[in-house]
Request: fold
Amino acid sequence: MIDFELTGKLKSQQQMMRGFAEQAMRPLARKYDEEEHEKPTELLKMVQGFMKGGVGGSMGGGGEKKKKEEGGEKKRSEANLTTAIAVEETFYGDAGIALAFPGQGLGGAAVQATGTPEQKAEFLARFSEDEPVWGAMAITEPEAGSDTANIRTTAVKDGDEWVLNGEKIFVTSGKSALEDSKGFVVVWATVDPKAGRAGIKPFIVEYGTPGMQITKVEDKLGIRCSDTVSLSFMDCRIPEKNILGSAEVVDPKKASTKGFKGVMATFDATRPLVAMMAIGVGRAALDELKRIMAEEGLEIRYAISPGRMTAIERDIMDMEANLKAARLLTYRSIWMLDNGERNSLEASMAKAKAGLAVTHITQKCVELMGPLGYSREMLFEKWMRDAKINDIFEGTGQIQMLVTARNVLGFGRDKLK
Amino acid sequence: MLSFELSEEQALVKETIAGFATDQIDPMAREMDESGEVSQDLVKTGWELEIVASCVPEEYGGFGEGPSALTGAIAYEELAYGDLSTALHICSPTSMAYTVLMDGTEDQKKTLLPNACGEEFKAAGAALVEPKFSFCPSKLETTAIREGTEYVLSGKKCLVPLAKESDNLLVFATTDPGAGFAGVDAFVVPCNNRDVAIGEREKNMGLKALSTHEVTFKNAKVPIEAKVGGNKGIDYLNLISRSRLALAAMSIGLMRRAAEHSRDYAKERVAFGEPIASRQAIAFMIAEMFIETDATRMLVWEAAWKCDRGDEFAKEAALAKNYAAEKCMKVCDYAVQVMGGHGYVRDNMPELWFRNARAFSTLEGLVMV
Reply:
């Protein structure tokens, strides 16, 4: 049965997260935007305390997949939905702070998607300790952004170790994971540069590993509370067992979920969560706009014909419809994931819609608020800057369109470049 | 618990109508648009789907428990996938039937509903839209003024479907000017009333197979029993919202048809040595068509779900309808564009969809879920 009602349990979690977002996060939003590279240490400790690195700004926990049970009966799970709801609420609070939350992050999601049970046990246990810990993922390189197959960082087997060499950029929470806590980064490197995608494998590099260095902490347009770093690897040696999945280079057509396909599996699980991040920011801006307009006496006449509406009424309706559509598309893709269905198409649709909608919504809100929107006295301009990242990270809006188009057309990357 | 899974009944409805729309309606769409007539065979077969009867309770001639907006939305999407004119024609009796079923007096239900549940299709058009650019359902210029035991109707309506073949029309008119949606009532008006003038068949840009007329009421007198719901009247905002959902649901069918057409064409059509779908400029348009089709469906389903639960849903229905009208136009514009010159000629379907799509920004009240 089609049902848009969240369970009572989820609704109360949502309420709780909303309260936390409004009371603990929002008041700090401006401070940690202005004081880039500072962290709300006390808040992050508290987050670790009550979330144990589970849900929130970190995107971990999204990799869990539920398989169909024997006999065709589907196993109902709401693990990803629970995370998604928390993501929307925390990003409603503040995107920068939410992204700085401790937790397994994308690195953990990669372990979830591609690691063995032993690896999961070994590397993920730390996230439920008392002290905040971060996991990070390093894919992007100066010469390889969306084009992940072009990764040049190498991993060479030497005895019972892997030796990594190369440079990674745009590593979210890299400083938090490697300098501020006993975390790790999952580094994607090629074991066979001639093999293309099939040669690219994920490796876990622990904090403090010699040969790995943070070479830059980025200054950014938005999400300033979250650190984004460059990493260099110079003969960085890691144990043999730190490769996630198999080291074997197999024909990509025959590959299962390991290796490079693991990147995609990671994204299938995390794309909807990135969409929810966007939706949280969009809702923050739109709710505040509507609150202020209502105070000023604006009543939105939803049911009259569009031709009789004021420009502001039409804008607000348009924004509401887009935000709602983005959220529902995202819910759908998460529901599929929770039911063990492949959701590549739906997840890319959701992220494409959400990134675009929220980029537009937050820009429109600044416009409609006029000088108040443009002023740093209010948060509208910050939301507009924060929102833009959702159209870029974990696949730009254009990449989402490309993935969606390939899925719709049934074209591989050979037929649609 | 969040779920996007159709019920068994909904899945069956979807499958049945999808088969009918794909195998029978769709192949006729061009011919009907050119001839200006919806095929009577299609109307007959469509009526056998018992869309109305399956919603009307047994005591009034049907075998249902009231309309489900969600099931209706699923059914209408499939019908309109075949052809919008045909979908509107087949579903046009729903406005009268559901209005009477939901808000009518016991007498009105007993008199009018069995007719709407018969084996033969019986036309009953709804007269809501008025021929002016500033038309708004909350500000109808057609008035109904009480005079003793009668109401006197005056005003002009347009886009009244099947007015020529209906025995009665469902006419929406203002009884309390200035009261907005609360000031509108519905009347069951016989077409043979001498002060009801049914004009020439309208000539519209699209929906050319659907017969619509302008209808003028020149102080047409009807007994007070013609007022739906008696003293209580109607829940007009609810009816309008149900109509908006019905129309928005139909727009999804049209969008899906157009999106699939563009997808299939772009994979076949070769230019510069490869299928045009291999070019991002085309591929991204197609991706957007599919995204917006699904986005609209999500908005419609959520609003319909609220409606079925008895929650307030007027806002959601309006959001869905306005979004649908805009996106359907865009998607059908893309369907023409993907084909280029071939999309502009009447040998191919996109130009027909392009004309039909714009109707959603104008239509109100013609059909309901």
Remarks:
- The CA atoms of residues 3 and 332 of chain A lie 11 Å apart.
